[in-house]
Amino acid sequence: MLLTRPRTTTDPLWQLTADCAGDVRPERLDLLVGVYRDDSGAAPVMDAVRAAELRLARRSPSKAYVGPAGSERFLGAMSALLFADDRLSARAAGVQTVAGTGALRLLAELLAATGPDRTVLLGTPAYVNHPAILAAAGLRTAIHPVTADGSAMLAAVDAARPGDVLLVQGCCHNPTGLSMPVALWDELAAALVRRGVVPFVDQAYFGLGDGLDEDLEGMRRLLRTVPDAVVAVSASKAWGLYNERTGAAFVLSDDAGHRTQARTLLENIARASYSQPPAHGAAIVEEILTDPVLTGRWRTELETMRLRLGSLRDGLAGLTGFTGLADQRGMFLTLPLDAAAMLRLRSDHGVYGLPSGRVNLAGIPSSRLAEVAAAIRAAGRALVPSS
Ligand SMILES: Cc1ncc(COP(=O)(O)O)c(C=O)c1O
């Protein structure tokens, strides 16, 4: 028999996405999956991406195997962008991965292989796939609540054992929208060093919070302080390359021997899993990041996306009376509505978000902002502050 333990569950996201697609009401609005949409509701290909693709097509690069580590030029350009500091980049060794998820999985496998007794400290609510990825790699997790002041996270680190790991999102936390201030990153770095806990940073939404460098600054400061770290990077959001599955996994260490070993281990894990990463998305990112003109175009487009998200967020905060929403950052917004209110939002108004209250802001056309805000007020009537 193929399935000896057939009972399993699916992520409600995909069921709700199918329900929304089947909803015949013309006003139905899909605020579920984390894909950026412009004001017309399209999920556009960025101009810089299109220009890079045209160049690649003209040059007809080879379709030969790229090897388990992928493109060295892509990795160099990504490392320069993320770490923005030659000394930090010199401490980083990486491999190209199958998007952010692939990077998370390879690094989780690496952490499990190099420290079978480790516990991974994970803030909750977590990105829905984090617990599954850690479990798939055989890692034990201990959860603590995600709070704006980071107090539970710092307490968890203070109670951890040397070699344990803290999984932390680099900015624009999915789903809470929290971006840690630099002072908290500094405090965290000191606690990690004190306890010998290894940071595992997941960078997925850089550029969509307070600005590209602003979003990466906290991580950069932390990485300058700690002796070892691992960083998973997704190119899905910042370059809109969702279905190209583009990302990178980096290991940072003061010890050159550890870096070499870690990279070989990552290559071996990749080799035994999918052998080699897909090349096209990484070639696009490489083309953009190694040409100042394309880099400039990409940064401008990313900034346009960020500003659109910010104006939608501020607009919703004002129109709903939930003023605290303005403090969130990134593509997602968590509404202060319970599952019953989110169900009302869906069934009475055709606005689809997750039962946890998470909505994809980019799915709201600005012309419908007032209507969506009114629907949120109506669905959450018991909770809405009176104006
Ligand atoms: C926090 C976080 N990390 C990682 C990912 C993985 O992204 P991808 O595998 O599409 O690059 C996502 C996707 O939604 C995410 O929200």
Question: Can you count the helices?
Answer: 14
Class derived from helix and strand content? alpha/beta
Radius of gyration equals 21 Å
Residue ranges: pLDDT <50 for 5 or more in a row? none
Specify the overall morphology: globular
Domain module count: 2
Largest sheet: 7 strands, mixed
Fraction of residues in helices?
40-55%
CATH level-3 fold name of the largest domain: Aspartate Aminotransferase, domain 2
Architecture overview:
By secondary structure, the protein is α/β, with parallel strands linked by helices. Helices cover 45% and strands 14% of the residues. The chain has two domains: 12-45 and 294-379, Aspartate Aminotransferase, domain 1, CATH 3.90.1150.10; 65-290, Aspartate Aminotransferase, domain 2, CATH 3.40.640. The chain has helices at residues 12-21, 47-59, 72-83, 86-90, 99-114, 130-136, 151-158, 182-195, 212-225, 256-271, 280-289, 292-320, 339-349, 369-379, and strands spanning 29-30, 92-98, 119-124, 140-145, 165-169, 198-203, 228-234, 246-253, 332-334, 351-352, 358-360. Strands 2-8-7-6-5-3-4 form a seven-stranded mixed beta sheet, with helices on both faces. It has a two-stranded parallel ribbon with strand order 1-10. The protein has a two-stranded antiparallel ribbon with strand order 9-11. The chain starts with 11 loop residues before the first helix and ends in an 8-residue tail after the last helix. The model has no long low-confidence stretch (mean pLDDT 94). Residues 34, 99-101, 127, 169, 174, 202, 204, 234, 236, 242, 247 line the site of pyridoxal-5'-phosphate (PLP). Residues 34, 99-101, 127, 169, 174, 202, 204, 234, 236, 242, 247 line the site of pyridoxal-5'-phosphate.
